Amino acid sequence: MAKRDNAVDLVGLLSVEGQDLAATWVREVSGSLKGRVGTAELDRELRELYDALLDALRQGATDVHADQMSEVRALLTELSRNRARQGFSPSETAVSIFALKRVLEPLLQEGSADDVRAYLELGRVLDGLGLFTIESYSQTREEIITAQAEQLLELSTPVVRLWDGVIAVPLVGTLDSARTQVVMEKLLQALVDTGSEQAIIDITGVPAVDTQVAQHLLKTIVAARLMGAECTVSGISPQIAQTIVALGIEFDDIVTKASLADALKLALRRSGVDLVAHEGAQR
Amino acid sequence: MSERIPILRIGETLLVSVQFDLEDQMVLNLQEDLAQQIVDKSARGVIIDISALEIVDSFVGRMLAAVAAISRVLDARTVVVGMRPAVAITLVELGLSLGGVDTALDLEKGLAKLRQSTDSALR
């Protein structure tokens, strides 16, 4: 019975000034978002949310996970998804909910003790809603990140033919075991397909090399050697060279070159091609 | 009596073409036969073609290394040719780098490699 009263109180609190409260809410939120969302859009979103919340409370919902709140949850999920896609920060997203508390504060000044109790009760519900918003926000962000990682994996491993019998893999971005596996398979398959005996792995675009990455590179090179191809690693920057030595990684008898040009020159010499500069050629 | 893998002779080179997945006993027989043949035919090079093999386990991997070592003692050079990418990856994951075994992409390149080394040895 007491619960029922509470719900009525909450509804009463929210509908004292009816539409006015919703309007103040919209103003408050659009102020905090600095006009990055259109007022009309914001107005529509928040009014829908407001009505849904009022409905849910009227039906006696007391926390976020109640059945009556499903409409509110759906609206909130959509709102935080949109915010996440548009690049808002988590606090900018959650502030939409918490602003409602601030809107209600002035009402308490001439309110009774019951009003204060109702406000506290509502505060608890709003806290739950705020947390829910952040949860769905980060979920959306994670989905975006996973999708991008998959796209990167597809994009980032081309095998190019530099010369007859010389292929190269320009690696760009951080190497992890999943990517190295893809690189390894593609490189080895390309060796068979093109009948190349020389392969160059260019790591100019790799920002950092740690023991794990070095391990992966070594594995690829040994596998290529097992198939009868020679591998050269090129594009080692001064910083990476220092890191490799500091970490105590040994590249044993693997040839490393500073630039792709040097590696190509070596690969050509190994496959018996001589480069001759003509006397009268233009430079 | 298990099957034996044929060993063919081309000039001073012995050619072993493995056409099906190897069982342990066949591997041991091959090792024995090959050592015998190198001496009998006074071969200078051995080519083992494994392009038809889809599965190579650690035992076969070690056998390849052992054959290479044996033939080196008998003054013949071993070249393993036609290893598939998947096989190469498996061997690396097993920690076998086949040190001391020469490799080539296909039979033709393997023969060229042997010819090169005998040429440089004669010089």
From TrEMBL, chain A:
Q: Which SUPFAM superfamilies match?
A: SpoIIaa-like
Q: Which InterPro entries match?
A: Bact_StressResp_Reg, RsbRD_N_dom, STAS_dom, STAS_dom_sf
This protein's UniProt keywords: Phosphoprotein
Organism superkingdom: Bacteria
Xref: PROSITE patterns: STAS
The name this protein goes by in its record? STAS domain-containing protein
Q: Which residues form the STAS domain?
A: 156-267
Q: Which organism is it from?
A: Streptomyces apricus
Automatic annotation (TrEMBL), chain B:
Q: Which InterPro entries match?
A: Bact_StressResp_Reg, STAS_dom, STAS_dom_sf
Checking SUPFAM superfamilies in the record gives: SpoIIaa-like
Q: Pfam families, per this entry?
A: STAS (PF01740)
Domain called STAS: residue spans: 1-123
State the source organism's domain of life: Bacteria
Q: Which Gene3D superfamilies match?
A: STAS domain
PANTHER family, per database record:
RSBT ANTAGONIST PROTEIN RSBS, RSBT ANTAGONIST PROTEIN RSBS-RELATED
Q: Any idea what this protein is called?
A: STAS domain-containing protein
